[in-house]
Design brief:
Order of helices and strands: HHEEEEE
Shape: rod-shaped
Strand content: 25-35%
Number of helices: 2
Radius of gyration: 28 Å
Distance between the termini: 90 Å
Helix content: 25-40%
Largest sheet: 5 strands, antiparallel
Length: about 110
């Protein structure tokens, strides 16, 4: 009438070895949609913003400096005017945000 403990333990493993991987796959899927995918989207938006920089845009650098773009160079550099007569060269990827955009000249 009662099953022995050994028989009950042997009858319980229906999925076998794959059953141990299901939680790991679920955890990876959740991490992908909650962490990795949004970070990739944010990186793509930042890259598009940096590529769209133009002369006259007011920007904030990663160091917190606010200035106006005076020249966009081809070799991944931007010249930013921080104050009247104070110009610095900045790597494009260190531009954090664009505060105000200039109208495109046609």
């Amino acid at each position: 009438m009662f099953a022995s403990p050994a028989y009950a333990q042997a009858a319980g493993g229906g999925l076998g070895g794959i059953g141990g991987f299901v939680p790991l796959i679920l955890i990876f899927g959740i991490m992908y949609f909650l962490m990795i995918r949004p970070q990739q989207k944010k990186l793509k938006e930042h890259r598009a913003m940096v590529e769209a920089l133009r002369k006259g845009d007011q920007v904030v650098t990663a160091g917190g400096l606010i200035g106006k773009v005076t020249k966009v160079k081809d070799d991944n550099e931007v010249e930013v005017e921080l104050a009247t007569g104070v110009k610095v060269r900045v790597v494009q990827s260190t531009i954090q945000t664009v505060l105000s955009k200039t109208e495109p000249t046609t």
